[in-house]
Amino acid sequence: DMFSSSLIAVHARHRCFDFVSSNITPHKKVAWPTKAVYKSFVPSTCRQFGVQMSADMSATAVIQRQLDLYNARDLEQYMALMHPNVHVTSLTDGRVIAASKEELLPRYRDRFSNPDLHCELLGRVVMENIVVDRERITGLKSGAFADCLAVYTVEGGLITKVQLHWKEHLL
């Protein structure tokens, strides 16, 4: 909803360095002010930082739906959020992981076959149609968990570009 998404955008703006740190630490829970405080604070703060709230909400909604579908392992609906020419690359080495939805499908078909797969959102930064998520992926087939920094570009309600920085850790 607009309140939650606005809260995320404003909260993320003030904690952006937590998301790009090379040393990944557990996300700290914070006590959120009441909804009444944010009704006036969020719109003025978003304007102050030049954040386009309507664009943020749209991109945020798409990426949040994508995360929910990932955790539900709903392959059909998950892939429906991808543009036919979605471009997925590694932020680490620049390699192309997939240059289309068709190339991406087998990767997620295999990943979603694992009933223990889960993605925990540790943080989110949103600006216009770009969403940066810091995630922890558990239930990987290797028995490891992964810290992931994912940069999503959303256009026309579809994910057009994904850039991933992925680091696996053995348990």
UniProtKB/TrEMBL annotation:
Residues 63-161 form the SnoaL-like domain. Transmembrane segments: none annotated. It comes from the Eukaryota. InterPro entries: NTF2-like_dom_sf (IPR032710), SnoaL-like (IPR037401). It comes from Cyanoptyche gloeocystis. This is SnoaL-like domain-containing protein.
